[in-house]
């Protein structure tokens, strides 16, 4: 009996260290057991402000496990359902660690796979992605996306537009009342008459290029106005005008503009519909066509007014090689240097828009120009104040100019 | 009435487009997109007018035996043949692809590549140091060219820093000033069009 008890005692003594030895091998000191991560807390969701009603914004507090250096914590996932009990679908996956807000958005087309319905209740959950498993936040809902009638983020733009309109209308009214408005001279505009006169003396045509813009581009609209003035002078001086067009709608408007200018000048018989014609709407084919006209017809004066891209220098250099006087103007900032180096006169940026007022010298147009100048002065003052505000950290002033989406 | 109705249409649509910018609601977006689709439809009709214009101008040239009238034949031949190839064999047909890949594309590439030579000739004229401002331009251009020349990397950081300063400070300041002016000019012109002050685009001022 005693012998058996002794054997049992020996076996227990042997088993305990063996078990302990085994345990030491599988779970060394310092290793964390498979404990599920803490979920994100305080989840809230709300209709995204200032949007078209197809997105919901979510915010949450980070999971307690979302700490620097915890490589087991992969990030978050957003789940959405049409009822609190589910089923939940994944809306956003692999949101990086440390993220506390996200937007669940989609498109408004109902036949699109990414459709996000408006004015429909949704419930949301945020899930942590962790090596040891996932932990879900509390369900939040219902929340629905609604389209807004006004984008408050664009209030600074609205204020600027209203201010600009008030300034413009005020100066137009002043001009109508007969006030003398001074506008500084523009060399490019002053040269228009001289250039047309030169063409008349030489007996050569004038080439007017409206650029690659469409009739909806403001630069093209400004160019139509200048074309009208140029065509009127051309009709008076009995010179010929060539207007090759890139866009068919632009061609139609240009034809009407030139025709009316000839009528206004009392020379309807001098107008030929074929002088304003469509070339092509392929950029470099158009350049080839216009360059061909320059080389064959050798116009005395070339006007490049409107929207121009890579073709600007190809046109202007060819015109320079054929010995034409060249007047250019565009609102494409990247093309202005090319025109400056290759043309005799260049209307830089806004001067293109101001040109019609300069040419017409009508009080109403000059009034609008004056309003523009005052707005520019306001912009300069705002920039100077902004610099001072930035130096002294006056965030309130700088936030006045922050524009949202 | 002939003038008032178009002006009224311009005023109403112009005002709607201006207001629409501040209204994010999807119904407002729908109307905006609807109107934009209409411009595409109008564009398609206008394309027919454009084609008619080029056919008429080219045919007249051939008829009058005007100078270089032979080019007009090539224009008409291209204008007629490409749609025929596309309509008979589709865009994958041998003839259409052949004409597109071996005639149109090389011609486009040739025109575009001329730009490199024109830049050189224009730069040669622009960089003549005939005045103080032209000399400043020349000096700035030399610095920028040195910075971006792959063979002159040994000139090191001072040139790179100076080039970056030229690009980011005086160049950027001038660029932004032009952009602000353009923005104001665009709004001013749009306002004049909406209010009917500017109406030469309708064929009369």
Task: Describe this protein's structure.
The complex is a heterodimer of chains A (405) and B (205). Chain A is α/β, with parallel strands linked by helices and 405 residues long. Chain A is 44% helix and 20% strand. Chain A has helices at 2-26, 155-176, 187-202, 218-237, 248-264, 283-297, 311-321, 336-342, 351-360, 363-391, 395-399, and strands at residues 41-47, 55-61, 73-81, 89-95, 101-105, 122-130, 135-136, 140-143, 206-211, 241-245, 276-278, 301-307, 325-330, 345-348. In chain A, helix 4 runs parallel beside helix 5. The longest helix of chain A is centred in the last third of the chain and has 29 residues, at 363-391. Chain B contains 6 helices and no strands. The mean pLDDT of chain B is 87. The chains are: A alpha/beta (405), B mainly alpha (205). Chains A and B meet through helix 2, helix 4, helix 5, helix 6 and helix 7 of A and helix 2, helix 4 and helix 6 of B.
Average pLDDT across residues of chain B? 87
Describe the largest sheet of chain B.
none
Assess the beta-strand content of chain B as a share of residues: under 5%
Number of strands of chain B: 0
DSSP helical segment count of chain A: 11
* H-E string of chain A: HEEEEEEEEHHEHEHEHEHEHEHHH
Multimerization state: heterodimer
Radius of gyration of chain B: 26 Å
Summary of the model, kept short:
Chain A has 405 residues and is an alpha/beta fold. Helices cover 44% and strands 20% of the residues of chain A. In chain A, the strands form three sheets. Chain A has a six-stranded parallel β-sheet with strand order 11-10-9-12-13-14, sandwiched between helices.
């Amino acid at each position: 009996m005693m012998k058996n008890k002794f054997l049992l005692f020996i076996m227990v003594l042997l088993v305990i260290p063996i078990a302990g030895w085994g345990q030491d091998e599988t779970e060394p000191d310092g290793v964390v057991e498979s404990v599920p991560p803490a979920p994100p807390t305080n989840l809230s969701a709300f209709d995204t402000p200032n949007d078209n009603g197809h997105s919901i914004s979510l915010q949450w507090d980070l999971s307690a496990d979302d700490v620097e250096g915890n490589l087991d914590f992969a990030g978050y996932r957003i789940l959405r359902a049409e009822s609190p009990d589910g089923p939940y679908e994944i809306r956003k996956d692999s949101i990086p660690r440390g993220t506390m807000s996200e937007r669940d958005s989609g498109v408004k087309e109902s036949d699109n796979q990414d459709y996000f319905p408006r004015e429909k209740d949704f419930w949301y959950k945020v899930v942590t992605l962790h090596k040891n498993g996932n932990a879900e936040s509390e369900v939040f809902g219902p929340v629905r996306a609604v389209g807004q009638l006004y984008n408050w983020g664009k209030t600074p733009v609205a204020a600027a537009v209203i201010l600009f309109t008030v300034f413009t209308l005020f100066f137009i009214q002043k001009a109508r009342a007969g006030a003398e408005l001074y506008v500084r001279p523009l060399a490019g505009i002053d040269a228009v008459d001289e250039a047309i006169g030169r063409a008349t003396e030489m007996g050569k045509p004038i080439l007017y290029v409206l650029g690659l813009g469409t009739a909806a581009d403001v630069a093209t609209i400004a160019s139509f106005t200048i074309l009208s003035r140029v065509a009127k002078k051309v009709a008076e001086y009995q010179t010929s005008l060539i207007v090759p067009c890139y866009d068919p709608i632009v061609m139609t408007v240009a034809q009407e503009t030139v025709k009316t200018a000839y009528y206004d000048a009392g020379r309807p018989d001098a107008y030929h519909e074929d002088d304003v014609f469509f070339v092509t709407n392929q950029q470099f084919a158009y350049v080839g066509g216009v360059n061909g006209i320059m080389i064959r017809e050798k116009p005395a004066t070339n006007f490049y007014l409107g929207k121009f891209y890579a073709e600007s220098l190809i046109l202007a250099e060819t015109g320079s090689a054929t010995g034409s006087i060249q007047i250019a103007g565009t609102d494409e900032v990247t093309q202005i240097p090319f025109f400056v180096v290759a043309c005799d006169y260049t209307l830089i940026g806004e001067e293109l828009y101001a040109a019609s007022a300069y040419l017409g010298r009508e009080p109403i147009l000059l009034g609008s120009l004056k309003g523009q100048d005052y707005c520019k002065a306001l912009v300069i003052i705002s920039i100077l104040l902004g610099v001072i505000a930035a130096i002294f950290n006056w965030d309130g002033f700088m936030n006045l100019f922050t524009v949202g989406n | 009435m002939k003038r008032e109705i178009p002006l009224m249409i311009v005023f109403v649509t112009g005002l709607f487009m201006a207001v629409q910018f501040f209204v994010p609601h999807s119904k407002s977006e729908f109307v905006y997109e609807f109107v934009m689709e209409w411009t595409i439809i109008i564009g398609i009709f206008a394309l027919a007018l454009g084609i008619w214009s080029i056919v008429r101008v080219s045919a007249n040239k051939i008829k009058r035996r005007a100078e270089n009238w032979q080019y007009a034949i090539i224009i008409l031949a291209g204008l007629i043949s490409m749609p025929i190839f596309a309509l008979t064999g589709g865009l994958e047909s041998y003839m259409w692809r052949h004409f597109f890949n071996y005639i149109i594309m090389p011609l486009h590439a040739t025109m575009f590549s001329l730009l490199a030579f024109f830049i050189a000739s224009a730069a040669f004229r622009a960089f003549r140091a005939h005045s103080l401002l032209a000399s400043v331009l020349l000096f700035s251009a030399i610095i920028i060219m040195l910075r971006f020349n792959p063979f002159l990397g040994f000139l090191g950081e001072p040139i790179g820093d100076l080039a970056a300063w030229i690009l980011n400070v005086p160049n950027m300041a001038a660029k932004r000033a032009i952009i602000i002016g353009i923005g104001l000019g665009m709004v001013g012109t749009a306002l004049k069009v909406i209010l009917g002050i500017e109406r030469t685009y309708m064929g009369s001022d």
